[in-house]
Amino acid sequence: MKKIISILLILSVAFVTFAETGVGSTTLNLGLQAAICGKLYHGFTEEDNASANDIKSELSGSGSGNRTVGINLESDAVQPIGYYNLYTTGNAQITVSFTTTPVSMTMGSTTYYVPYQLAYAASNGNSRVNVSGTNIGSVAVATTSNPGSSTPTIVLTTTHNGLRWQTISLTAQFAGTLNEAFGLPESVGAGYVGTIVATVTALT
To answer: How far apart are CA 172 and CA 139, in angstroms?
Structure first.
């Protein structure tokens, strides 16, 4: 019986010790820690995006390209060809450069190349992206000699941290009258195809 009583007393003392809050108020700190990965969405679209969320929603991080059809190689007019979109939250500042290839088509052993001038201008975005320059390449008559790709040209540079987003409108201009006089052959298969490559580079 004495052993049982002593055990009960010990348990009672232990309970009182853990239940006591002390004199006055006390403060407990719970440390919270979180990690955020930088996001990058970029790509070409047919329509302009009016907000950062629109870019994120439409591109979904795929960075895939877009095909523009209905370009008239025999027109001298400036032709809209779509938009480029950038959304980034990474800490590294970045540049975006464009490289273009002439529109071309091969028939038999001959390849026909159609140079053009790519022009671009800022559309929607925040103040944390700088748009530089205005055009790439030049308007020139079609040729059967490969003029090669353009020199990579920096078109966007990010500044600051946090969300940075920008859309730029793209247009192309061809030497339409001269191309018509040159006599470009009728298109076959996929027709005349060229590319605009957007390259993202982190600044060190």
So the answer is: 9
